[in-house]
Specification:
globular; 2 domains; 4-stranded mixed sheet; mainly alpha; 11 helices
Length: about 260
């Protein structure tokens, strides 16, 4: 039992939340993978062509997790405001959103670049098995240490139109502004890796195309964490966090998703 009124108890609480965050990331990765299945294959396709042993084990695991978290959720106070569905965006609104996001990424990059620093040797060593040396040379990072990145001004306009499921910028571990990664609190290897994946996506796709795919993905999937660009970053981060991870090229994975039109 964790208690917060003594040093050992505080350590226990910190460990609990660390493990909870790790489980949350794994669940997001699983959710994203399942969402990709849903987008690409019908239920009948899975039943007809999928391996039945894997389908059964997956269904059993999902059911067990649902029961576990549902029991916890019942004891958590319900949100006062129910979630509202996203409205339909016009082509003009979509084009405007893409321009806003592209400009925001570039402007924040210029804003934070003067205070940002290169990756230190330790972080380079950890990430070198996943990213090229030239890519890591170009990356700059900044820990805000108590401060947080504010939400972009256009979020207020988007919310006034009914788009309330936008990401909570100030609560995110890291934000990627092209080749500058900003951390709302302290840098962690998980948040750094996630941010680097997005930087690779931007470098290969280009800022405008990245913004276009992010906006389109958000409108299509109706949530931040199911945008395919985010799905891929979560999935690769989960692979990176495995106890004995195999090294892999993030650039090759991103290029493969582009070639397969998965973004």
């Amino acid at each position: 039992m964790c208690q917060e009124d003594n040093p050992e108890g505080r350590t226990c609480v910190m460990q609990l939340n660390s493990e909870l965050q790790r489980a949350h990331l794994e669940l997001l990765s699983a959710h994203c993978a399942a969402h990709q299945l849903r987008l690409h294959y019908s239920t009948q396709d899975l039943i007809r062509f999928g391996r039945r042993d894997i389908l059964r084990k997956s269904a059993q695991a999902a059911s067990a997790l649902h029961q576990y978290y549902a029991a916890i959720e019942q004891k958590i106070p319900a949100d006062a405001t129910p979630e509202q569905p996203l409205p339909t965006a016009s082509p003009e609104q979509i084009a405007q959103a893409v321009r806003w996001l592209s400009s925001y990424l570039q402007e924040q990059r210029e804003n934070y670049l003067p205070a940002a620093a290169r990756l230190n040797q330790r972080h380079r060593e950890v990430m070198s098995g996943y990213f090229s040396s030239d890519f890591l040379d170009a990356i700059r990072i900044l820990e805000l240490k108590g401060a947080r990145v504010p939400a972009p001004d256009f979020f207020a306009h988007a919310r006034s139109l009914g788009f309330h499921q936008l990401p909570e910028i100030s609560h995110m571990d890291s934000l990627t502004f092209l080749d500058v990664i900003v951390f709302n609190e302290l840098l962690t290897e998980r948040a750094l890796f996630h941010g680097l994946v997005h930087s690779v996506q931007i470098a290969i796709l280009g800022t405008a195309r990245y913004a276009e795919l992010w906006v389109e993905g958000f409108l299509r999937t109706r949530a931040h964490f199911t945008v395919p660009l985010e799905v891929h970053a979560f999935a690769l981060s989960a692979k990176f966090l495995r106890p004995n991870p195999e090294k892999f090229s993030v650039e090759e994975h991103v290029q493969a998703w582009i070639d397969q039109n998965r973004y």
